[in-house]
Amino acid sequence: MACGKEEVSLSPSQLKLFLDAVKEPATEDAIARFTGLPIFKVRSSLRELTEAGYIETFHNEYTVSNKGKEYLVQN
Fold first, then answer.
1. What is the DSSP string of 1-51?
2. Which InterPro entries does the protein's record reference (predicted)?
3. Which of 6, 23, 44, 67 is the most buried (most CB within 10 A)?
4. Which of the 8 DSSP states describes residue 57?
5. Interior/surface letters 12-32, b for 16+ CB within 10 angstroms, e for the rest
6. Chain center to CA of 53
7. Predicted local distance difference test score (pLDDT) of residue 12
8. Can you tell me the distance from the alpha carbon of 68 to that of 49, in angstroms, rounded to the nearest whole number?
């Protein structure tokens, strides 16, 4: 099982896509454009990734956390 997979329902490729989308602070709309996903899916995924510690939020923008950076380096 991939690192962190037990914490989130996203596949490893989906997790990497979201982490790539927030390497720089980004809004939900910007992430939806980057990923090509509908906003409802982006919101639920961001909530899940924030709760799991892969993403941080500040002033309605999301960015990759230290845990997310570690995941990207390992994968």
1. --TTGGG-SS-HHHHHHHHHHTSS-B-HHHHHHHHT--HHHHHHHHHHHHH
2. WH-like_DNA-bd_sf, WH_DNA-bd_sf
3. 67
4. E
5. eebbbbbbebbeeebeeebbb
6. 9
7. 84
8. 9
**Do 21 and 61 contact (CB within 8 A), yes or no?**
no
Long-range CB contacts for residues 19-23, cutoff 8 Å, separation at least 24: 19/49, 19/54, 19/55, 19/64, 19/68, 19/71, 19/72, 20/72, 22/55, 22/62, 22/63, 22/64, 22/68, 23/63, 23/64
Rounded to an integer, what is the distance from CA 21 to the centroid of its chain?
7
Instruction: Report whether 46 contacts 18 (CB < 8 A).
Output: yes
Q: List the beta bridge partners of residue 61.
A: 58
The token pair at 6 is 């037990």
Domains within the chain, CATH numbers bracketed? 11-74 (1.10.10.10)
